[in-house]
Amino acid sequence: MQLAGNVAIVTGGSKGIGYAVANYLMAHGADVVISSRTPPEVGAAAENLTAAHPGRRALPVVADVAAAADVERMYGVAEDELGPVAVVANVAGNYSLGEITDLPDDDWNAVLATHLTGTFLSTRAAIRRMRTSGTAGAVVNIGAVDVYGTTRGNAHYAAAKAGILKFTQVAALEAGRYGIRVNSVSPGVVPAEGALPRSMTEAFHRSFAIDRMGEPSDVAKAVVFLASDYAAWITGVDLLVDGGTHLRGLPDYAEHLLGGTGDR
Fold it and tell me: Where are the beta strands (DSSP E) in the chain?
């Protein structure tokens, strides 16, 4: 599974799943552009990745994936500095919690803008540029196990991720004629920095078939597989990487994270 000589873009690549994706892409031979809205974080991440992979390059770009001009600039940097883009991993995301009746407009708009609009803008730029350069590339979007179950407190996030999965299917159908593949990976719970409340951790463990929390590397390996020639005849699919959570169902976020009742 080699990606030697390929140029990749990883949005949200300064930490967490995005950083792990960039790390694994570079380990398999790719040069990467990583983006983030936070200059110190993305700069430090690019330095660490370059140091960890002698002979490979990681370039930082400060960009908001929900802004079309930033996305076009990001792709321009990749092409000018490294060459035609062959792999794109749309990982950038944000998150908040709130039941629908308490959910501020700003939270709804921010989550949909980063996840759904950001995925659209980056995928559109990727397909346009790959088509122009004649690159039979791969785009991998990030969904979520939340699409496969229903829980209170995350309507905006679940709606955005559901949109990404259907968007991915349409993009795959439209881009296939150019030899471009578009797939998605839906992670289960991969805790960010900071521990989850004990009740939530215990509830997640009850939902797992493989009894452990996910790690960024679990998701990164799936992304790299779909980006590689090992998946050369795979397009328009969503790959669940969730330890089996979808088999039992999601815990109730409102109960464990928002202090709500268990009443349904």
Answer: 7-11, 31-36, 58-62, 85-90, 138-142, 181-187, 238-241
- The CA distance from 115 to 249, in Å, is 23
pLDDT at residue 194 greater than cutoff 70: no
Q: How far is CA 233 from CA 122, 138, 176, in A?
A: 22, 11, 10
Domain chopping of the chain, boundaries: 7-195+214-249
pLDDT-derived band of residue 253, with 50, 70 and 90 as boundaries? confident
pLDDT tens digits along 196-216 = 778 888 888 888 899 898 999
Q: Are 184 and 138 in contact (CB under 8 A)?
A: no
Strands 181-187, 238-241: pairing kind: parallel
CATH 3.30.70.2740 fits 7-195+214-249, yes or no: no
pTM for the model stands at 0.95
- The residues annotated as belonging to the active site are 157
